[in-house]
From TrEMBL:
This is 1-alkyl-2-acetylglycerophosphocholine esterase. PANTHER family: PLATELET-ACTIVATING FACTOR ACETYLHYDROLASE (PTHR10272:SF0). The keyword Lipid metabolism applies. GO terms for biological process: lipid catabolic process. GO terms for molecular function: 1-alkyl-2-acetylglycerophosphocholine esterase activity. Keywords: Hydrolase, Lipid degradation, Lipid metabolism.
Amino acid sequence: MISETKGAEAQETVIGRDSVDYLLQDGTRLQLELWFPAIAPLSAVKQHKDYSFSVSLKKILVDISGMPSMTISTKETSNGLRDVVAKPGSFPVVIFSHGFTSFSRQNSRQLEALALAGYIVIAPSHPGDSLTTEYSDGTIVEIDRSQDALKLTSSKANTSKLKDEIAKIAVESNQLRKKSTEQYLLDLPQFVDGTIYRHYVTSAQRRRGHLVQLVSQLIAKDPQAQDTALADADLTRIALYGHSLGGVVSVLATEELNREESRVKAVVNLDAVQFVLPDENSINLSTPTCFIMGGSTKMGKTKISNLYLNSPWAKANKDVCEINVTKAAHNNFTDLTYVTPLKWFGQLGPIKNKAFGDWINGFLIAYFDSKLLGKHYSYPIWPSAELVGTI
């Protein structure tokens, strides 16, 4: 934190937190979690901080994932402070999209780092797609459990069917990554339709629509943003990024938003094969894009690797990069790795969790500083990682 002086009272630059209900044009009510640069007296820094997990979120996470209740604490505090004053100035905006069967605060330490670096960060909860969407009036909407992808992958799923799907995607993805760029782009829709990814298409389409509407309404100076930290946001400088399905959706939404004008300046996909949807044959990736991929995720007894699955995008487009981190597992790209008991479930790779998390945070700040603010400075990729394309 950075100390400032306001008269005789010492002030701190802190991470502000807020939760805002937000109505989209199609009638969907999102719940937006906000992180932003703020100022507060020194005494406020020691006050009660924001909680990472609500009771309702813990309940459904335990139910769907099958994790023991003791692995999740509703007393874990974040570094964000509520009821503090937004720091004067106009700050660029980063919108984060969470993974499937996850929640808006899954990367909270990352979002805090971005806010402290001078970004206003928005993480939407999508009713029916997020584990929980918790509105200001106390209403809670849980994830729609009738979704095919959830029925297939939850702790109560048909394990033999899931094993078949996992085995198939392991074979298909290995074949896909070996193809030429031209053949890859031709075969990608068939890969999605013929594997477990087909079950995520409806959710991806819905969430893409949410992000497109959200960005469009903010740029149009939607009055809902007034009296929030978004009121003075610099909406000429917007970036999107996400993890897993959220990374896929972030790229798809960026492509739609930028078809006629450059409204999103950069996008990052954390560890997901960038598939296209049935309503489009391809995507151009005309926006600066970076894929950061891992390679050691275990699903049951089968090891699935995302390494190099987006290399054709990086090779075929300028200002597109792919960073491949062999020892990182899928959940290493989230803050869930800081919950120590999760290591019992074999979901993490052999990488050093906190060190890797700190690297991702620093890389994202450097990448967005470069693409949104024109601040170009050297920031190394993860040791032993391989870069495809250009950053």
